[in-house]
Amino acid sequence: MNFNLFRYLALGDSLTVGVGVPIWDPGFVEYYRGVSQRIIKEPLLYQKYAISGATTEDVLNFTYSQIVTEAIKCANIITITAGGDDLINAARQFIMDENKEDILHAIKQSQKNYINLLERIHRMDKQDKYIIRLMTLYNPFPDIPVVDEAIKRFNVLIKSFGRETNVKVADIYSVFKGNEQGLLSKGGVHPNSKGYYQMALDFSRLGYSPLV
């Protein structure tokens, strides 16, 4: 019997934490692990390193801790959710000074952090076969034009990373667009259980090559 143990590492912000559903209920990471195990037909051991409110800089800094570095080296699957809090922080500043440069600066800084994050992961002495999965940001405030414009700009840069080796990007913006009421929790910002499950399905549709 062929038996392989694959390892899944989830890095990120509140979306990786699973904010929006009861603490003992599955969130995105748990759903994605379950869906992935059914598809690859192998056990999938997972680790999660995430903090609610984490920015792209915070997630990059995670990778400098020894425990996360070792987890990255062992991982076959890595998912990263980050960027939403970068824009939230910039939006708060924009509300105070009405300077759009706040948002543009946040997007440029996020791009720089993602470049450094992916470069750091790629350069580590890793498994022979691994995949990295990113996501576009959904918009919990579709009726606010400046928010939608900022998210679309951010998503353009995120999608550009899909050209890198072993990296693919799930278009979560499109999954949630027009379905916000059914996929977001009562707070209106984070996904509910259905929203997290739809995220997991969209990530899984990116495939698992070259793992299987």
Proportion of strand residues: 5-15%
**Mean pLDDT score:** 94
The structural domain count equals 1
**What is the radius of gyration?**
17 Å
Q: Reading side by side through the largest sheet, how are the strands ordered?
A: 2-1-3-4-5
Helix-strand category: alpha/beta
Which CATH architecture is right? 3-Layer(aba) Sandwich
Q: What count of helical segments does DSSP give?
A: 10
Q: Which fold name is given in CATH as the topology?
A: Rossmann fold
**CATH superfamily, called what?**
SGNH hydrolase
Helix content: 40-55%
Give the distance, in angstroms, between the N- and C-terminal Cα atoms. 16 Å
The run of helices and strands is EHHEHHEHHEHEHHH
Biggest β-sheet description: 5 strands, parallel
Text of the CATH class: Alpha Beta
Q: Can you tell me the residue ranges where pLDDT is under 50 for at least 5 consecutive residues? A: none
Total beta-strand segments: 5
Shape: globular
What does this structure look like?
The chain has 212 residues and is α/β, with parallel strands linked by helices. It has one domain: Rossmann fold (3-Layer(aba) Sandwich). A 5-stranded parallel sheet has the order 2-1-3-4-5, with helices on both faces. Helix 7 links the parallel strand 4 and strand 5. Helix 3 packs parallel to helix 6 and helix 6 runs parallel beside helix 7. It is globular, with a radius of gyration of 17 Å.
